[in-house]
Amino acid sequence: MSAPLYLDYQATTPLAPEAAAAMRPWLGEKFANPHSAHRPGREAAAAVEVARERVLAALGDGAAAGGLCFTSGATEAANWALKGAAARLPEGRRRIVTLATEHACVRDTLEWLGGRGFEVDILPVGADGLVDPERLAARVDERTGLVAIMLVNNEIGTVQPVEAAAGLVRERGALFFCDAVQGFGRVPIPLGACDLVAVSAHKVHGPKGIGALWVRRGVALDPLLHGGGQEGGIRSGTLSPALCAGFGEAARLLAERRDRDHRHVGRLWEIAGGLTAGWTLNGSAEARYRGNLNIRRDGLDAARLISEVREVAFSAGSACASGSGRPSHVLAALGLTDREARSSIRLGFGRHTSEDELRRALVAIGEAADRLRHLAA
Q1: What is the Cα gyration radius of the chain?
Q2: What would the pLDDT profile of 318-371 be if each residue is shown by its tens digit?
Q3: Are residue 218 and residue 275 in the same domain, yes or no?
Q4: Which domain holds residue 354?
């Protein structure tokens, strides 16, 4: 049986062959601990630092204003940013502002903080998935110590006005955390306006199990993990040179291929637009990353459609929430009913998606949707 046509790039991306090759020596003969003082350990440590510099370079302008700490993934990075920053907030600024469409790792971390004396204010978004700048300005006050806003939404692809929002937050004297996982390498990250930024390797053709937190110089965080004091003394745990090397190579390719990848995704978006007539787009049509197409069709059961179209790998939303049986909190925040949310699918494509593969996948999905609607009529 041939592999399914893959349209789930927001869940994960194919590992770049170059990243796999960069990892291979560190999975075999170069097995030393990068925190050991002997020569093999120093070689492993040097590989980690090369990877760090490559990820920093891929982050873009402003990266030199901070440092990068490797983590086990974006979930750890977000937890650490929010808990670590919150622990340092002064008594009069223990209010945290975020959006209703944030990723579960942010929402659940803030819920945890809310149970420990912090005031958490969750702002609504419009039907386009975007925050109202005036509402944000009204809610970030002198009691606010931290604001968390995602750059590119993982479910619907909308791009929040992070640079303007972060500028406002800085004027009010609060810290700004940005989940840039889905935006890394795809849209510019306004590092100059951010204090803390989380990214992940496996969303950019790197390996699973590694991410990073960029921390602006001068921003103090309490550690999330305690132990040997690796990563500058603030993130304990033995680093994997293999995972770091894979992330670094993926980041190098990201910077090298940025324009090509952008043009390719633009062509795929145009093709998708021509093959999804009769579907309704969820989220803004303009302020979005075009490798994420979240659409719905009235009366459709998305879960049944996914089961029906076995030759295509796609989703009904976040992989983190799949199987919960609950409608998407992101789609609910747009004002969609449960029925509308359950009739929505997410199609993600990118570097390794060919135009022919996308056409064949969309035709298969469209034909199956027509059959299911006919049977339900």
Answers
A1: 21
A2: 655 555 556 799 999 999 999 999 999 999 999 999 999 999 999 999 999 999
A3: no
A4: 5-13+258-376
